[in-house]
């Protein structure tokens, strides 16, 4: 029914990791000094305006942001700057608007598996590497001899074409009638042929400069490097910035495209105040990086790109960091970075009413496609709010992240709850008397806590604080080593998860939920990894001469095979248990319909639908089992086996399908559901 490969999702990785160009030293004073000395500008949205009444003014940007539909309007407030407001009623799942980003770049780890133009996934047979920079890949272009299409009684050579099978660049633009004897069936699928070449062709206007820059980058970096280590391309952030500058240079500062970019918010003045902080280091690295990437030796040489001063350079980088989105797969794994000024007008809330997704589109023309989708009912006049950060984090970490990157203090209902508001599940533990009520998690500053329902006081708060501290440390360590030492990471998530559950944390509380989500992803990777001898020994392999030799005393090849199947079954059951806890936790902290919730439910449904490696004996009474109550997730009978498990799989997949009202993520679930529909 389902296989593990389809479940394996890329683990989270940070985009925008600054990577300094090799040609410009990070210690060089020019760029860093320029940033710190850049004259400041009056700030539009400082968070000092909390006490001021929120005044809203509708703003018109003649000719700009034309992709924003009439159902939305731009308004400006003294407190939070500009944002988008609804002029109509939206219901959950409605598409507010869709845009193709101004620029986008894949992160380094995805350059070999995704098309750099449409961001579609491929493999070595469907993607072809650019022969110039040997870095980016495109949806398979056809051989130049095959490129063309038959249209309106004419054979058209699609052009300009860029040879992929040779070092030469082909540029054709002529039209030719098909000659006698031409094999027209070659062109029987003209659109397909066209779409096969269009990705590389469409990207060429920007990749032309990028290609040269990447070649120079590798040359300079290899010359500097004596350790023989592989030189990596610049980060997605630096490649994105490069693309912005080349496009600005091409279109000019007065073009709508450039004006929309320049219209995005910059936090230049806050940056110079932050001198020496991590944030200002990131900006310095990015500025250094882009200058070096463009093959320049000083910021002054940025003049042809419309960057006339150090202040302009700081604005460029600040606009980028404040307004960039992480492009994701339809199932929400990060792929790279993009800039879309119209969507960047939307303000943040930790309790958002809309979400940004990147579904696969009908046409590659518009990909990667960014869509803003309503998560809640939205009334006319209501502000559209998305979330900039991971809202499963507790308040302190959310505030820290928003302050560092976006320079504001969030005052949304989750960050500043009204008195008497329910306990936030991100920071909650069960009542010590088990009345079903919740207590706010103790903190170092305020360790006294009691059940909001029955008033029972949590006695051993020191033990809870210790568990929270080591849980957070373990999470950070597990995230660090997840790629280099997945076994260690898994062990940390399992052990500390248990400790936090014993301390009384609810599934949605931090860091328990983060550990559970990482544990689920590691267990799924373990299941799908063919190289894992613990779980992937097939029955045939068990009978191999080598394994037979290794069979210990008292064992037979058949008992070894049965043991291997049991191990596989246990690994699958472990993954199902972790995925169930992750789904429960996410449902506690994210609004219904949030794609992260839907994807977690789909992941669980798919795990439950996987053929069991060691299925139960066939003498099970199917009806009895189906009618018996479902075992609760924390009981030893969970997950159920056989038909009961399939029944649960169906229920969870239907639930996921209902929640995944947006994007292509639905397709994966529909495939699974089809198995049941077909009987
Ligand atoms: C992506 S921009 C959003 C549009 C922005 N308000 C503007 O005028 O261009 C992000 C910036 O908007 C401001 N912002 C967004 N959400 C906010 C909020 N909830 N409270 C205060 N400021 C906010 C912050 O200055 C933040 O760095």
Offer a quick outline of the entry:
This protein has 19 helices and 18 strands. It is an alpha+beta fold and 679 residues long.
Architecture overview:
With 679 residues, the chain is an alpha+beta fold. The protein has 4 domains: 4-106 and 239-404, Beta-clip-like (Beta Complex); 112-232, no CATH class; 422-516, no CATH class; 530-679, no CATH class. Helix content is 40%, strand content 10%. Helix 2 (29-37) packs across helix 8, helix 4 (236-251) packs across helix 7 (278-293) and helix 16 (595-609) runs parallel beside helix 19. The longest helix is centred in the N-terminal third of the chain and has 35 residues, at 190-224. It binds S-adenosylmethionine. The site of S-adenosylmethionine (SAM) has 17 residues, from strand 3, helix 8 and strand 13. Residues 16-28 have a biased composition (Polar residues). Residues 1-30, 615-639 are annotated as: Disordered. It holds the Pfam family SET.
Layout of helices and strands:
Layout: H1 4-7, H2 29-37, E1 56-58, E2 72-77, E3 81-86, E4 95-99, E5 103-106, E6 127-129, E7 137-139, E8 149-151, E9 154-156, E10 175-176, H3 190-224, H4 236-251, H5 256-262, H6 268-273, H7 278-293, H8 310-323, E11 324-328, E12 334-339, E13 347-348, E14 354-357, E15 370-374, E16 385-386, H9 395-406, E17 428-430, E18 438-440, H10 461-481, H11 486-502, H12 512-528, H13 539-542, H14 545-550, H15 557-589, H16 595-609, H17 622-627, H18 642-659, H19 665-677
Parallel strand pairs: 13-16
Antiparallel strand pairs: 1-2, 2-3, 4-15, 5-12, 6-7, 8-9, 9-10, 11-12, 14-15, 17-18
Helix pairs in contact: 2-8, 3-4, 4-7, 10-11, 10-12, 11-12, 12-15, 15-16, 16-18, 16-19, 18-19
The protein binds S-adenosylmethionine.
Biased composition (Polar residues): 16-28
Protein name: SET domain-containing protein
GO cellular component, one term: nucleus
């Amino acid at each position: 029914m389902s296989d593990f490969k389809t479940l394996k999702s890329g683990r989270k990785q940070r985009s925008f990791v600054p990577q300094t160009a090799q040609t410009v030293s990070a210690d060089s004073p020019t760029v860093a000094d320029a940033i710190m000395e850049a004259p400041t500008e009056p700030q539009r949205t400082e968070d000092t305006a909390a006490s001021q009444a929120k005044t809203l003014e509708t703003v018109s940007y003649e000719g700009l942001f034309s992709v924003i539909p009439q159902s939305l309007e731009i308004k400006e407030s003294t407190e939070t700057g500009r944002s988008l407001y609804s002029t109509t009623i939206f219901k959950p799942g409605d598409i507010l608007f869709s845009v193709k980003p101004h620029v986008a770049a894949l992160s380094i780890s995805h350059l070999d598996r995704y098309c750099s133009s449409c961001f579609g996934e491929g493999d070595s047979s469907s993607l072809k590497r650019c022969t110039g920079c040997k870095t980016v890949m495109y949806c398979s272009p056809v051989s130049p001899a095959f490129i063309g299409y038959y249209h309106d009684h004419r054979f058209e050579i699609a052009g300009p074409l860029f040879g992929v099978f040779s070092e030469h660049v082909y540029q054709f633009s002529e039209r030719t009638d098909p000659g006698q004897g031409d094999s027209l069936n070659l062109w029987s699928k003209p659109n397909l042929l066209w779409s096969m070449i269009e990705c590389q062709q469409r990207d060429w206007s920007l990749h032309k400069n990028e290609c040269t820059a990447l070649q120079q980058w590798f040359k300079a970096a290899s010359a500097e490097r004596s350790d023989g280590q592989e030189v990596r391309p610049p980060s997605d952030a630096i490649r994105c910035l490069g693309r912005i500058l080349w496009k600005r240079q091409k279109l000019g500062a007065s073009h709508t495209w450039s004006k929309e970019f320049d219209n995005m918010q910059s936090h230049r003045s806050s940056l110079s105040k932050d001198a020496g902080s991590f944030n200002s280091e990131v900006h310095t690295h990015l500025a250094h990086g882009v200058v070096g990437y463009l093959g320049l030796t000083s910021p002054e040489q940025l003049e042809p790109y419309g960057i006339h001063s150090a202040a302009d350079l700081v604005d460029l980088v600040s606009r980028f960091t404040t307004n960039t989105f992480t492009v994701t797969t339809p199932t929400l794994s990060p792929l790279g970075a993009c800039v879309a000024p119209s969507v960047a007008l939307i303000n943040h809330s930790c309790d958002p009413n809309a979400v940004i997704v990147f579904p696969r589109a009908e046409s590659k023309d518009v990909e990667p496609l960014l869509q803003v989708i309503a998560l809640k009912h939205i009334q006319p006049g209501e502000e559209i709010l998305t979330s900039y950060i991971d809202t499963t984090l507790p308040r302190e970490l959310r505030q820290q992240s928003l302050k560092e990157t976006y320079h504001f203090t969030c005052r949304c209902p989750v960050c500043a709850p009204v008195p008497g508001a329910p306990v936030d599940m991100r920071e909650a533990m069960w009542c010590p008397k088990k009345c079903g009520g919740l207590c706010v998690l103790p903190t170092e500053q305020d360790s006294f806590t009691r059940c909001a329902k029955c008033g029972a006081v949590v006695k051993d708060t020191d033990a809870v604080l210790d568990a929270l501290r080591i849980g957070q440390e373990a999470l950070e360590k597990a995230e660090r080593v997840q790629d280099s030492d997945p076994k260690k990471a898994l062990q940390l998530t399992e052990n500390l998860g248990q400790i936090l559950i014993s301390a009384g944390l609810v599934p949605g509380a931090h860091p328990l939920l983060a550990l559970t989500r990482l544990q689920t992803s590691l267990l799924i990777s373990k299941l799908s990894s063919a190289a894992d001898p613990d779980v992937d020994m097939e029955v045939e392999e068990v009978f191999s001469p080598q394994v037979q030799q290794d069979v210990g005393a008292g064992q037979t090849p058949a008992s070894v095979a049965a043991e291997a199947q049991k191990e596989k079954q246990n690994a699958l059951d472990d993954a199902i248990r972790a995925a169930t806890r992750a789904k429960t936790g996410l449902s506690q902290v994210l609004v219904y319909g949030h794609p992260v919730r839907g994807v977690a439910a789909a992941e669980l449904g798919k795990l439950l639908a996987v053929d069991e490696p060691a299925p139960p004996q066939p003498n099970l009474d199917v009806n009895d089992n189906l009618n018996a109550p479902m075992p609760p997730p924390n009981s030893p009978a969970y997950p159920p086996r056989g038909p009961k498990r399939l029944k649960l799989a169906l229920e969870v997949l239907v639930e996921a399908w209902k929640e995944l009202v947006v994007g292509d993520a639905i397709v994966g679930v529909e495939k699974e559901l089809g198995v049941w529909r077909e009987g």
